[in-house]
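Exercise 7. Predict the joint structure of the components listed below.
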Amino acid sequence: MHPLLSDDPGRKMLLLGNEAIVRGAVEAGMAVAASYPGTPSSEIGNNLFQITQDRESGIYFEFSTNEKVAMEVTASASAAGLRTLTCMKHVGMNVASDVLMTLAYIGLRGGMVIVCADDPSMHSSQNEQDNRYYAKLSGLPLLEPTSPEEARDMTKAAFDLSEELGLPVILRTTTRTAHVRGPVPLGPIASERRRNGRFEKTPMRWVPVPAVARMRHKALLEQQEKATALADKSPFNRISGRGDIGIVASGVAACYVQDAMAELGCADSVRFLRLGFSYPVPEGLFTSFLQGLRKVLVVEELEPFQEEALRVVAHRNSMDVEILGKASGHFSRLYEFDPAHVRNTIASVLGMDVKAPDMPDLSGIPQLPMRPPTLCKGCPHRETYNEVKEALTAIGVVDETVYPTDIGCYTLGMLPPIGMADYLLCMGSSVGASSGFSIATDQKIVSFIGDSTFFHSGISSLCSAVHNQHDFCLVILDNSTTAMTGHQPNPGISLRPPGYEKPRIAIEDVVKGCGVTQLYKINPYKKAESVDTLRQALSQSGVTVVIAEAPCVLYYKRVGGNRS
Amino acid sequence: MKRQRILFTGVGGQGTLLASRLLGEAAMAEDMDVCVSEVHGMAQRGGVVESTVMLGGITGPIISDGEADVLVSFEPLETIRALPKCSTGSVIITNTVPIEPFTVKLGQADYPDVEQWIDFMRENYPVVKALDADSLAREAGTAKAVNVVLIGTLAALQVLPVSADRIRDTIERTVKKKFVEANLRAFELGFNAASNA
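Solution:
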């Protein structure tokens, strides 16, 4: 049995934030989950996948082809009365946002939790957008855990909250709450896990044609008022300490504040509001918190989300309180926080001195060689890149070729000595961007996309490119897995995890179905043949697709032999 | 309990995360407050992988400059890179076997002189243990146990409130069965190496 299913209340496990979320969902009786992997959320899907390999678990999980699909799958299962969860990285929410915005109108019956994992400092992402704004944009309640134990507690509570309001609840983590391990005392597992739902037809509720949507928007605003009242009295929003200086923080920033106050010895003399149920704005709580305060320091990573909310509440109540944070220059809107900076800032607001650590003189350290991540030894993508370069050299266009790229391990092809990644926006952008370049320039366009990314969002852009008669070569790097995020399956895989029996959809068939007639296949480990084929492919005009098929070496080692 | 910050650093694939997790599991088994941070994703493809273990009630997972009480490094270049995290009171345990990054071959910068920098550490930090953990791991029967060798050295120094027996017990509980024996040997070799490293 999977350890996260163990029915052993009281026992402590050292869980990753992401594992604690899975445990919370198991304890809450979640029945259906779907996800597209994305760091820092990936271990949620991975663990759910492993859990559901055990048929006794009573849970359904799937890796959907993208975040939008995953949110649709879980939303409708919730409409049928089941408890559901979907999870994604912050940019995955952009893909799912079309669902999110209207799901907030039509709502649900079974509790639904949407986990989104932000990545301040962009450890493995292309931007550091602050997804708390999605809560504000959609009008949905937002919970932000600070530790694995709280992640479990909040996930569990989120299902109840979701059912109470008839709305999905967003649980927002960041890299430092998703990828932190801490002791979690296990709670009891739900005695009942409702697996068979029933959808009650109520078109005036579930089909948001304009007349229905107008009613549902109103219903959403009414629920938001209820949610505000719940946030005001939520046990996840706690005030401690006293005095005329206040601090407000949420997420991992609240941990840094707690640690700093312990080290500065000021926990009793500062009023600290630790926010966990952080949207809708708990206006009543903010009002009573601000009462009697001279200054408030808002400690939050990324955007001044709570800082601005506090300003509005202070203004509305004509309170004379100085609000410090991003606007005052105490904190940056860039990157994740450094705990010492948080401590020093608190000390300076309190007028305390902090002693800097005593360090040896390190000025003699020379410039050290960097160690960027790189394609693994034996990785087939490296072979493909070199072969494409050789073929382009033979044709005589290598110097003027533009390489739009996509999201996956192969984005590392940007680094020298490969240097074959020139333009990137988001998942699937290689195909659409190639179209634009081919309109705007006479340069040769060769773009790269992985198998999983192709299924995620390459297909509709490929149809568009064929129909609109663009001119580029798309190389699909098919390594038979979603490698970068930890080897999750996708519809095209020929190399399968043990016991995985879902039908395969061959990329070749999909590409043909998109109307591509110039289709080639190579095995990148057969160099001479590959270069030869690539020379032919790259000499064509119009949309040409080359499928470079060879399994990820790491994955092959792990599941080798289970080839269908 | 004393608040302590332990920084592990190494190269993707060296088992940094298992080391911090072992220490975290052992601390939890001692009923201590513990917080372990891990790096997942892109960095695991041969990049720098840092993890931390926080003891004594620290709740934030990041270590600021000059605030690591203990540095355990799996690779000497990464030890030098992590020195800004140390103070004049830090304990340093480092593997001496370099893994040359590809940027050296590209001529971006030279690989630093390991001997010279270990001398620098011995002059400037109170406890420095530098050892060839790769050889000891091979001697134990698995080249992959560099992480457990260094955990053994850490345990021998008795700077943390987690006992060596507790760590042995945690290795038995958490490592895959067929690797337990080799890992326990690696732990002992690292433990014994502490006295002459």
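Discussion. Chain A has three domains: 3-192+200-232, 238-350, 380-559.
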